[in-house]
């Protein structure tokens, strides 16, 4: 079993690599090779049994993935992407990285007859938009209101068509908002969603820029990684007629998040959250759908977190490791 | 007012050109120039007042539309496309004509600052697929099960994003099945839908390859042309948040079509339809959705046919002109 991860130096790429090495197998086969590709040299988690290689490549360069695909990997995780704000700031960059490079990857598989290579891509809740129903389901239209979501939705269509034509074996997972991310607050509009839990648990102050009634559709990093692994193992036939769907996140309000913080770490921790409404952030985040029926993902065996409490406890446990 | 029509030699392109010249104005402005672009030299309908030009161009050639766009047209109808069967037979051809050329057209508008140029594209019922509800609406997902529909759906997303960014002023109309097309039966799976009316009305035999209970979502050529004209006139602000939607067709069964034929032309005409079930055609056509709620199109002022009877009478009237 040879696995490739594009975006292998990123948040999910590194966690996925570590998890795959800890498992040692995928699809019932021992992992022999793991190739991490990123524009920055990806750190290689150590392994005694697996040949782990990091390749510094810009996937927008013509033929960038040629030698990687020549090795005929059985599983390709395509996680390289520029994020929402970068794709909005630079249309060409977003189109090249998020769309054209995905198309080149599909063509690379097609040209080499990698019909049975499972290609797993991460799409996003940002692909939804427009006049959405109160509860979204697997047949809700993608009418993205940002370029990142547009590019992700176009990739979904293309991966589905190449898979339908038997040119590759694709599977696209739409990821909920991921909490609790480790690290520091960043420029992302969703940054506060991790921050209002992470910082107080670390004894630091956090700012909550939105109303406590605001709801989010969330998943823990661990469950996202589990879903990526399951995405390699679910049988291709089961993925028809459309190979992209939302993962089973859970719907939580900011009030519930703060309540869980207090339950877990007391009034002292809660007091570290300052409420400073930011209408700009509120407007962006409020436009993201927060309620989904995720029947397809569940029928395919994808599982989400049991509760917000579990998510927070998992973060605390991981941090103390 | 300068108008460009790509696919100007095609069925809809030629009718649209004739109709525009008969009107003489669009968006309240007198039409001065009309440029028809097609890979085959488009016939130019005569006009005393409008400068009508036909250009033989392959829109997949780099820069093919440069001189056309340099003239800064106010309205571009983008109707050039390869049809469903051709796009299915040749993935590269379909991607180049149906997707890449649309993207190049968008880039051409962007590069010239044609932010106010209204770009009208024709999408299709073939963009729908998968596990569809009994009645589709404006928020039903596009999960195409053919490459043509995939390419159309990708164009919808891209035109919406370029419009949202203020780079062009796009509007995409999803067309129902068009009946009654003049001419001869062809290889299209939907060919029978026109044939079972047209041939008997012309005193000829027709073959009905599907069950009479089968339903279709249809629109007359005249109403499609009216919709294309309205698509140039509807205000851009009204098109947000998503600039692609289904036109208001009507749902008809094959039994109703045959019944209308009998009402209009008697038992003799009806007797010219031979029933020869073709499971291959039945399977394709039965997968096309036949029931839609088209609220957005109606709210935007797009109108469909009043009845199947009207559609058939309009065909008879046009034929006798
Ligand atoms: N983290 C989330 O909340 C979330 C939510 C939805 C979807 N996603 C998607 O999941 C995937 C992984 O997300 P992440 O959080 O790990 O993001 P990340 O930004 O940490 O990782 C993405 C990686 O892609 C690499 N990359 C960018 N351009 C490249 C290029 N031209 N060539 C090679 N590598 C390039 C970056 O260097 C980075 O290491 C992305 O596709 C992202 O869109 C993430
Ligand atoms: N007629 C229908 O039932 C229907 C239904 C849904 C959507 N549409 C769409 O409406 C549009 C017009 O349909 P139509 O029925 O007039 O089709 P048509 O085939 O009669 O016309 C399309 C024209 O595009 C031209 N063309 C193809 N490739 C080209 C290239 N590389 N460069 C330049 N020109 C090229 C063809 O020569 C042809 O004249 C198409 O986009 C079609 O997909 C039609």
TrEMBL record, chains A, B:
Any one GO molecular function term: oxidoreductase activity
Keyword field: Carbohydrate metabolism, NADP
InterPro entries registered for this protein in UniProt: DenD, Epimerase_deHydtase, NAD(P)-bd_dom_sf
Alphabetized Gene3D superfamilies for the sequence: NAD(P)-binding Rossmann-like Domain, UDP-galactose 4-epimerase, domain 1
A Pfam match: Epimerase
Domain NAD-dependent epimerase/dehydratase: 3-204
Protein name: SDR family oxidoreductase
Organism encoding this protein: Billgrantia kenyensis
Taxonomic path: Bacteria, Pseudomonadati, Pseudomonadota, Gammaproteobacteria, Oceanospirillales
